[in-house]
């Protein structure tokens, strides 16, 4: 078997295709979550904490000299990234928790017992007849 045919067999397996689809959807979902956090969640939080924007927090380690740019440690961006992660993780946790609750409610709903089959009914009748004969 040639390398090309082996690769084709590998690439066409269901797991590889499913994984590729998952990665593409995950990347698109990541953009949605980033927009949700950055554009919907963070503005009210920023308003609640007095309009502080962490991304502007930085320490200049070395000032700009001529054509050389300043050396800046932007620790505010790091703090903002951590807050974004915590918010995203909490939102995902709440979503998974809601999905699990729905699954538990589905599983908790008892199914109606199955009706006895014809064979079971006949066996029950035979048992009852034999019991009635013994009692006589």
From TrEMBL:
Signal peptide: none annotated. The chain crosses the membrane at residues 16-37, 78-96. One of its GO terms (cellular component) is plasma membrane. Keywords: Cell inner membrane, Cell membrane, Ion channel, Ion transport, Membrane, Transmembrane, Transmembrane helix, Transport. Its main location: membrane. It is a multi-pass membrane protein. It is found in: Cell inner membrane; Cell membrane. One of its GO terms (molecular function) is mechanosensitive monoatomic ion channel activity. Homopentamer. PANTHER family: LARGE-CONDUCTANCE MECHANOSENSITIVE CHANNEL, MECHANOSENSITIVE CHANNEL MSCL. NCBIfam families: mscL (TIGR00220), PRK00567.1-4 (NF001843). Channel that opens in response to stretch forces in the membrane lipid bilayer. May participate in the regulation of osmotic pressure changes within the cell. This is Large-conductance mechanosensitive channel. It comes from Aquipseudomonas campi.
